[in-house]
């Protein structure tokens, strides 16, 4: 089996790391696993350090810039030389058995620079169940291809899984000035070098934020990052991206409702659709928690829309990557 570099950007993931590392080691003992830690304050570092003392193919790498993009870039600069493929593994997810070997088989059988995967959301709490129900439906994703299981196909973006080290280096790696949407932004550059394949057989399971505040903060970042990507690459937003942008505008118009009830119509229409869709999803699943997917989606829409507007009026991130020392791929 072809060996590859596995990079795990990590911050306070003690609950997921032990099982994840064990699974990845079993998938291919020759793979080099690098955990790029952004300053964890829980037991994450100790877990990796303990395993690294017993397994030379497990390494702990300090990521002083904390964000995931910087951690992956640093890992590629430090350990990517001489390798054909690397796999990005986010610690806060659940992966199918044989994940890495399956990705390698797909990549080796196709002429692509990247294999991406769908992401299905799961839950462990009632609030997470509401969010997961929304995120697994058009209500929460607008029909994004990589947020639903479907057929394999060439796409312009998906959840990052496996990439060519050479293509990643040639494209310039992740934009470290972006805290969100850095994956979609990189895909715009990767497509100039080759094709991206979405493979549903290797779909992963994602666990959403546990609190409304954390969810709102995440989606604000998503919206801001998407606006930055569109501006950088002079792209037009899609219809599914413009719908949540209208939500903060509807909220602003509602403030004028004392002058005329007509100003409340947009927000009433949006709320009716979201709450009605959530009710339908909850009844279909026979779950009281899933019924709350409507309010969860409304929070996601509002936060994403506000973030998008913020990203539209803010300056573009200009910093890309720090200078590197990897001799074979000097641009990473």
Shape: globular
Lateral arrangement of strands in the main beta sheet = 3-2-1-4-9-6-10-8
What multimeric state do the chains show? single chain
Number of helical segments with 4 or more residues: 13
SS-based class: alpha/beta
Percent strand: 5-15%
Count the E strands: 11
Number of individual domains: 2
Q: What name does CATH use for the topology of the largest domain?
A: Spore Coat Polysaccharide Biosynthesis Protein SpsA, Chain A
Order of helices and strands: EHEHEHEEHEEHHEEHHEEHHHHH
- What is the radius of gyration? 21 Å
- The averaged pLDDT comes out at 90
Provide a concise account of the structure shown.
The protein contains 13 helices and eleven strands. With 332 residues, it is of the alpha/beta class.
Descriptive overview:
The protein is an alpha/beta fold. It has 2 domains: 196 residues, Spore Coat Polysaccharide Biosynthesis Protein SpsA, Chain A, CATH 3.90.550.10; 101 residues, no CATH class. The protein contains 13 helices and 11 strands. The protein has an 8-stranded mixed β-sheet, sandwiched between helices. Strands 5-11-7 form a 3-stranded mixed β-sheet. Helix 9 packs parallel to helix 13 and helix 11 packs across helix 13. The longest helix has 21 residues. The C terminus is likely disordered.
């Amino acid at each position: 089996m072809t060996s590859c570099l596995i990079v795990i950007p990590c911050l306070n993931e003690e609950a997921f790391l032990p099982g994840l590392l064990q699974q990845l080691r079993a998938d291919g003992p020759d793979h080099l696993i690098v955990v790029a830690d952004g300053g964890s304050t829980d037991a994450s570092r100790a877990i990796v350090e303990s395993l690294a003392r017993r397994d030379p193919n497990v390494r702990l790498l300090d990521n002083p810039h904390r964000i995931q993009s910087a951690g992956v870039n640093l890992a590629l600069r430090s350990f990517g030389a001489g390798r054909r493929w690397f796999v990005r593994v986010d610690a806060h997810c659940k992966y199918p058995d044989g994940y890495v070997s399956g990705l390698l088989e797909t990549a080796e059988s196709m002429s692509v620079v990247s294999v991406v995967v769908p992401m299905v959301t799961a839950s462990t709490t009632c609030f997470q169940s509401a969010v997961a129900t929304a995120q697994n439906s058009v209500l929460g994703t607008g029909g994004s291809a990589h947020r639903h299981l479907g057929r394999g196909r060439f796409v312009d973006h998906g959840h990052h899984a496996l990439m060519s080290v050479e293509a990643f280096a040639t494209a310039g790696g992740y934009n470290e000035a972006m805290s969100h949407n850095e994956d979609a932004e990189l895909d715009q550059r990767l497509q100039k070098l080759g094709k991206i394949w979405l493979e549903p057989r290797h779909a992963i399971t994602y666990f959403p934020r546990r609190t409304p505040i954390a969810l709102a903060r995440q989606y604000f970042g998503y919206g801001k990052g998407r606006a930055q990507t569109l501006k950088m690459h002079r792209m037009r937003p899609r219809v599914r991206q413009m719908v949540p942008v209208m939500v903060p505008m509807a909220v602003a118009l509602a403030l004028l409702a004392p002058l005329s009830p007509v100003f409340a119509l947009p927000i009433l229409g949006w709320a009716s659709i979201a709450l009605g869709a959530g009710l339908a999803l909850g009844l279909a699943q026979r779950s009281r928690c899933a019924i709350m997917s409507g309010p969860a989606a409304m929070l996601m829409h509002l936060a994403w829309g506000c973030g998008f507007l913020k990203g539209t009026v803010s300056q573009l991130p200009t910093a890309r990557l720090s200078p590197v020392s990897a001799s074979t791929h000097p641009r990473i």
